[in-house]
């Protein structure tokens, strides 16, 4: 049985060695099913970039909770 083709999210190259493939997450799409996101073991940090909007939202929530506790 053959291994499915996995592309590295960071560099765009195929991940030939299954032991080198790291599952990063699942990317939803508007049209049709989503896809699994993979990366080479050396590129995991680049492939798992955080969305700045999500980081700002999380920071606001944490700040609101911190100041709410002091009131």
Describe this structure in words.
This protein is an alpha+beta fold and 71 residues long. Helices cover 32% and strands 18% of the residues. It contains two helices and two strands; from the N terminus they run ββαα. It has a two-stranded antiparallel sheet. A hairpin with a 7-residue loop joins strand 1 and strand 2. The chain is elongated, with a radius of gyration of 18 Å. The model has no long low-confidence stretch (mean pLDDT 83).
What share of residues are in beta strands? 15-25%
Sequence of secondary-structure elements: EEHH
* Structural shape: elongated
Spatial strand sequence of the major β-sheet? 1-2
Number of DSSP strand runs? 2
Radius of gyration: 18 Å
Average pLDDT rating: 83
- Structural class call reads alpha+beta
The largest sheet, given as strand count, sense and whether it forms a barrel, is:
2 strands, antiparallel
Unreliable segments of 5+ consecutive residues = none
C-alpha end-to-end distance:
62 Å
Query: So how many helices?
Result: 2
Helix content bin? 25-40%
Question: What's the helix and strand layout?
Answer:
Elements: E1 21-27, E2 35-40, H1 44-47, H2 52-70
Antiparallel strand pairs: 1-2
């Amino acid at each position: 049985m053959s291994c499915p083709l996995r592309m590295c999210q960071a560099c765009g190259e195929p991940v030939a060695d299954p032991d080198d493939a790291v599952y990063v997450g699942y990317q939803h799409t508007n049209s049709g099913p989503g896809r699994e996101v993979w990366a080479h073991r050396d590129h995991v940090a680049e492939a798992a970039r955080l969305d700045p909007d999500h980081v700002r939202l999380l920071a606001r929530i944490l700040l609101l909770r911190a100041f709410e506790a002091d009131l």
